[in-house]
Amino acid sequence: MRKTIICFLLLGCAVFSRAQQVTLSPDQLKALTPEWKGERFPDGRPKVSDRMLERLKKVHLEEAWGILRNKGYQNQFEGDWMVQHPDSVMTGRVVTAQYLPMRPDFDKLIKETGKTEKRIGATNSWPIDVLKEGDIYVADSYGKIADGTLIGDNLGNAIYAKSKRGVIFYGSVRDVEGLDEINGFNSWTKGNDPSYIQQMMLGGINVPIRIGRATVLPGDAVLAKKYGVVFIPSHLLDSVVLQAEFISLRDQFGHQRLREGKYTPGQIDTQWTEEIKKDFLHWIDENSSKLPMTRQELDQYMKDRTW
Q1: Which of 20, 190, 203, 240 could covalently link to 100 via disulfide, CB atoms 3.0 to 4.6 Å apart?
Q2: Can you give the pLDDT at residue 303?
Q3: What predicted TM-score, i.e. pTM, was given to this entire model?
Q4: What's phi and psi for 23, nearest 5 deg?
């Protein structure tokens, strides 16, 4: 199993030469994401909680980025997107697709493999078939704009019907006006073009992909906003959300006390004294109804934190 995944990562072909499948198997996906200890989808992808995905919407991009960097994950952000509805926030679970410039022999192998798996239609519709509610279709189409449009409004409707989400494509889409008419659908792309997809082929579904500066795995959590996208490893989502929420609480407390003139900027911006810590805990008690997390989660977090 490990040899299959390592070969795939190095050569990009072991999935087909050894496993004879378009997507990684459930066992391969489990081996690819060993640090995730929670529930999984039947396809093997980590299934992060809906509750955490909802809370993630309020996390600032910079906070998520900074927390991940401090944990050693320095390549999880990509910016400079064309966002269909810039003021909307999208979170969800990643389904990946890899697209490549056309090579007839490899394309033939992909399509023959798809037939044995009873996949229907054009290859750019295959990733849509595996979507579940809460999934985000994330594709690397190597930044191709003209003749690189992965979807139009027909496939856009299919995506939203299955996932209730949108797409993140390192490439392009077509018929943006039609996509605009899909209530709730949103897209992060590198451009749009009226052309159809040509001289491109599917390389794999639910395989590791590169999205600009970021490495993305199936089952990652996504935080997509108008200023960029952060891809969060599934096993880090809970800690990223909780730490970001705690930072937000500290900031709210600090800003209020600065406005009141109780502390100086130097006192708030450096290591807090025991007096300030006690004041913060009292402030938490007074504002407990506004906490984004449960008090149990907060108490456990502060117990493990060195401030």
Answers
A1: 203
A2: 83
A3: 0.90
A4: -120, 160
